[in-house]
Design brief:
By secondary structure, the chain is an alpha/beta fold. Helices cover 40% and strands 20% of the residues. Strands 1, 2, 3, 4, 5, 6, 7, 8, 9, 10, 11 and 12 form a 12-stranded mixed sheet that branches. The N and C termini lie far apart (82 Å).
C-alpha cells in the first residue's frame, strides 16, 4: 500500500509542469547585446547568481531607448533601461517612468561627483574624433580645425535624434561655439560624409574605409590595439576640451519584476558586471574591477578639459539645438 502511495506521488510530481524561472527584461542598445559586446557574459554571470532568465531587448542607440520608452509610457515591458547617459537623465526623469535605484554610491569610480538616486552609472568615456592614420597623415589639431578644415577629408557622425554620440557632438559644438553654433554646423556639414542612426553603423563604415574620421570615444583605440594588435586608429585631443559620457541604468516604476531589477542594479556595481566593461563595451568602468585595466588603456587620450553642460540645460534646449542642426545640415 505504501509503495502504491509513493508511486502515485512521484507520478503526480512528474506530471506537474516545472515552474518557469522569473524573468528580467532589460532595454538597451544593440552593441551592448552583440556577441562581441559585454551583454552575453553579463547575462551568463547574472543568471548564475539569480537563478532567473535575463532577457535583452535591443534598439539602435541610447537616444532610441528614451524615444521608445516615451512611446510606450506606462505600458513599457522593460524592467530596466540600460544605456541612457548623463545628457539624457533630466529628460528621462521628467517622463515619470523611473524610480529610485536604492543603491549606495560610495563605491563609484568616476571623474565627477555623482549623487543621483534614480540613474545609476555603469561606465564612462569622453567623446572624441577617431582617425585612420593610414588615410590621414595630418589630423585636425582642434575642434575648430575639424569644423573649418579641408572638406576632402570626411567624417562620419551620428544622428543626435537617435544616438548619444550624436547628441554629444551637438552639445560639443554648442559648448564651444555658443550662439554661433548654427554657423559652425553650416561650415562643418561639408566635411560630413554621412549621418548614421547610431554608433555601430558609423564605426562599421569607418573601419571599412568609407571616411578617415568618425565620431567615437577616447577609448576606441584600445579595442584595436588589444583585439587587433593595431595602432592604426587613434583619437585626437582637442584643446577646447571634450564632453564626457556617463552611461546609466534605471529601474522602471512599473517594472514587473521590481525585486529582480534591484538585484541587477546591485550586481551592476560588482566585478561580475564591471569586469566586462573595459574589453567588452570598450569604455571605462564606473566601479572597481577585479584586476587592473590592460596597459593599453594608459595610452589613451586624456582630455585636459571636460566640457560640461548640465542635464537640465540639455533637456531644455535639445529640441532647439536639434532644429538648429537640421536647418544647417539641410536635413
Amino acid at each position: 500500500m505504501l509503495r502504491f502511495a509513493l508511486t502515485a506521488v512521484i507520478a503526480l510530481l512528474v506530471l506537474q509542469p516545472a515552474r518557469a524561472a522569473e524573468s528580467l527584461t532589460v532595454l538597451t542598445y544593440e552593441s551592448f547585446t552583440a556577441e562581441w559586446g559585454p551583454g552575453p557574459a553579463i547575462e551568463k554571470a547574472f543568471e548564475a547568481q539569480c537563478g532567473c532568465d535575463l532577457k535583452w531587448v535591443a534598439v539602435g542607440d541610447g537616444v532610441a531607448i528614451l524615444n521608445r520608452l516615451k512611446l510606450e509610457g506606462d505600458s513599457a515591458s522593460a524592467d530596466i533601461a540600460l544605456g541612457l547617459d548623463n545628457n539624457l537623465i533630466a529628460e528621462a526623469r521628467a517622463t515619470g517612468l523611473f524610480t529610485s535605484h536604492s543603491q549606495k554610491l560610495d563605491g563609484l569610480k568616476l571623474p565627477l561627483a555623482w549623487t543621483d538616486d534614480t540613474f545609476l552609472p555603469y561606465d564612462y568615456a569622453h567623446f572624441a574624433v577617431v582617425y585612420d592614420t593610414q588615410k590621414l597623415e595630418t589630423p585636425p589639431k582642434s575642434l575648430d580645425e575639424l569644423v573649418r578644415g579641408d572638406p576632402e577629408y570626411k567624417i562620419i557622425i551620428e544622428d543626435p535624434r537617435t544616438s548619444t554620440p550624436g547628441l554629444g557632438l551637438l552639445i560639443w559644438i554648442k559648448a564651444v561655439y555658443g550662439d554661433k553654433a548654427g554657423e559652425a554646423w553650416k561650415t562643418f556639414k561639408h566635411r560630413v560624409l554621412t549621418v548614421t542612426p547610431g554608433w555601430s553603423e558609423a564605426y562599421a563604415l569607418f573601419t571599412k574605409g568609407e571616411a578617415p574620421m568618425v565620431l567615437s570615444y577616447t577609448t576606441s583605440p584600445a579595442y584595436h590595439e588589444i583585439a587587433e594588435k593595431s595602432t592604426r586608429y587613434q583619437a585626437i585631443a582637442f584643446p577646447e576640451g571634450h564632453p564626457i559620457q556617463v552611461e546609466v541604468a534605471a529601474k522602471l516604476a512599473k517594472a514587473k519584476s521590481p525585486a529582480l531589477a534591484d538585484k541587477f542594479l546591485a550586481f551592476m556595481l560588482t566585478t561580475g558586471f564591471q569586469d566586462q566593461i573595459p574589453t567588452g563595451n570598450w569604455m571605462l568602468p564606473a566601479a572597481p574591477t577585479s584586476t587592473p585595466l590592460p596597459a593599453e588603456f594608459d595610452k589613451l587620450v586624456k582630455p585636459v578639459k571636460t566640457l560640461d553642460i548640465s542635464p537640465d540645460e540639455v533637456a531644455t534646449n535639445r529640441r532647439a539645438w536639434t532644429d538648429e542642426w537640421l536647418a544647417a545640415m539641410g536635413r
